[in-house]
Each structure stands twice: as C-alpha cells, then as structure tokens.
Amino acid sequence: MKIRVPYFLIFLILLLPGCDKADRYIASPRENFEALWHIIDEHYCFFEEKGVDWEVVRRKYERQLSDTMNRYELFDLLSDMLAELKDGHTNLVSPFNTARYWAWFEDYPRNFNADIQRNYLGTRYGIAGGIRYVKLPGTEIGYIYYGSFSSAVSETNLDEIFYFFRTCRGLIIDVRGNGGGALTNVERIASRFLSEPIRAGYIVHKTGPGHSDFSEPYPVDLRPSTHTRWRRPTVVLTNRHSYSATNDFINVMRRIDRVVILGDRTGGGGGMPFSSELPNGWQVRFSASPLLDADKRSIESGIDPDIRVDMTKADMDRGKDTMIEAAIRNIRERTKDE
C-alpha cells in the first residue's frame, strides 16, 4: 500500500530543522550591539597603541542604535563601530556582506603595476607552488614573485627554485601586494636564508578582560632550514599592501645578513587574529595577540624599508619598474668585486 504525503507536509518537515537552527540566533539589534562591544572590549589587543577610547566609541554608536532597524542597517552600524579600531585584521562577516577596513593602504602609493611586472617575468617563468620565478634577462639575478602566503610552497618547491638559481649572483623576492596568509610559509621560506638560529620576535597574549591585561612576551625563534639555503645578496621588495604574514616575513628577513628591504613601508597587521560569534550568528574577527620584533617593539603599524623607493611616472611610462631596477643596481653594486 502506498501512502501519499501532501507536498505542503513535506515542505514543513524539511523546514523544521532550519527553524530549529534559526531559533538559536537572536536578531535583537541591542543584544548584538552589546555582544560585539563586549567581545572587543575584553579581547582586542591594540586599544592603547592606537589611542582608541572604546567607551567613547560605544556612546557614539549606541545613540544611533534602534530596536526597529533592519539587519542591513545593523550591519552597517556595527561595521562603522569596528572601523574605529583602524585595524585591517578586523572584520564583521554576515551571510550577505563582509565588513573590512582598508584605510591602512588607501592613502599610500600603489607602488606595483602587474602590466609592467610582465616586462620582467615574461611568459616563460617557472611556477612552483604559489611562487613564480625567472632569471631576469640580461642579468645574473633571480626574481621571485610571491603574491600570497596563503598559496602553498613546499620544501621541494623551494629546493627546485634555488637549484634553478644556482648560477645567479643575487636574488630579488617581490612580496608587493601580498596580503598575508600562513605563518608556516613565512617560516619555511625565511629559514632558507639563515646560517644560524635567530630571535625573530615575541608574541604576547591577553590574560584578562582589562585593556592592559597581557602576558610577558614569549620569544619566537627561527632555525636554519635543513634543506638548500641561499647565502648570496638578496633584496626584498615591499609596498603598503604587504600585510599581515608578509609583515612578519619582513620582520624576519630584515634581521638577516645579505638581505636588504627595498620599497615602501609595509602595511603592518602585527596582531594574531581571533574569531568569535554574535547572538545572530554573524562572525567577528579581530586582533587578539600582538606580535613584536626582536627588540620588543610593535610591528602593527608597519615596517620601514632599509632603502625607500617609490615607482616613478617616468619609469612607468617607459615600462620600467623603479623598484626592480633599484634592486638590480643594489645587487650589482654588492657583487661587483666577485
């Protein structure tokens, strides 16, 4: 015997699990406002460094809060409140939008042009994991472009790259526009340039809800790789879009002999991000643990290069990358007696 179930009953049965899940979330604007404010108040790590009075911020945005505002209006209000932190690691994530803070790079020159970069990379460059690499024509200099530390790079990839560059006198590593990613890739690449262990920096953790409740700094050390290592002159190119894990990479590389950092100040992003959830199910991400350099100074606002260079319009009009050209000259000067 077949039992026919009306379609509307099937629809209700399918809908019930979703209703149970939805019922767990609280849509009240005030409750979500309070939850976000308290999460940041107790766990965010850069209030004092950035001079942010979170109580004043609360009063400013609480006045704009309404129990009748819709979810889009609430999202915009909470996003504006988070923007007061001036932190590129701070995001509010909903099913319909992700809030982000970009002012940390918007007022700086771009200092990178992908069309001009192709004049150096060509079309026959190698690809190893997330790295593109080539020997620059007419030079004895290798060039690496790494666009994201989120792109995997294995030890085998690096072995092959350094073997390819075995006859080169120097190396350019271009991390302009690299917005960060995995610290494991930072360590894997930077360790290829070490001859001995170094103190890369320190990390600090929150120990309580107070804005000054921090642990003592814990040292972060890096050891030389057991694989092929590079011991020749190296120039690392940076711009303001070099952020987060890329900032950490520069923090390590600038401590290594034979490495010169050239370009613009990095974008910073020296806080380890942490995530939490609001009553309505939206996710909030924010800086929770400061990373410090080897002298226990903050790197949140960025790292200055050893040699400051901006791309010039005159060079760009000729299809030249001012930073790459300066890096070539730097390596040639350092290797002219070899």
Describe what this molecule looks like in 3D.
The chain has 338 residues and is of the alpha/beta class. The chain folds into two domains: 26-101 and 206-220 and 271-295, 2-Layer Sandwich (Transcription Regulator spoIIAA); 107-194 and 229-268 and 303-334, 2-enoyl-CoA Hydratase, Chain A, domain 1. The protein is built from twelve helices and 13 strands. The chain has helices at residues 7-23, 29-43, 47-50, 54-62, 71-83, 103-106, 114-121, 155-164, 183-190, 245-253, 313-317, 322-334, and strands spanning 91-93, 98-99, 126-128, 131-135, 141-146, 170-174, 198-203, 218-222, 234-238, 259-263, 271-277, 283-292, 307-308. The strands form two sheets. It has a seven-stranded mixed beta sheet with strand order 3-4-5-6-9-10-13, with helices on both faces. Strands 1, 2, 7, 8, 11 and 12 form a six-stranded antiparallel beta sheet that branches. Helix 9 (183-190) packs parallel to helix 10. The longest helix has 17 residues, at 7-23. It is elongated and about 70 Å long.
Q: Give the helix level as a range of percent.
A: 25-40%
Overall strand count = 13
**Gyration radius, rounded:** 25 Å
Q: From the 3D structure, determine the CATH topology of the largest domain.
A: 2-enoyl-CoA Hydratase, Chain A, domain 1
Organism: Tannerella sp. oral taxon BU063 isolate Cell 6/7/9
Pfam families: Peptidase_S41, Tricorn_C1
GO molecular function: serine-type peptidase activity
Protein name: Peptidase S41
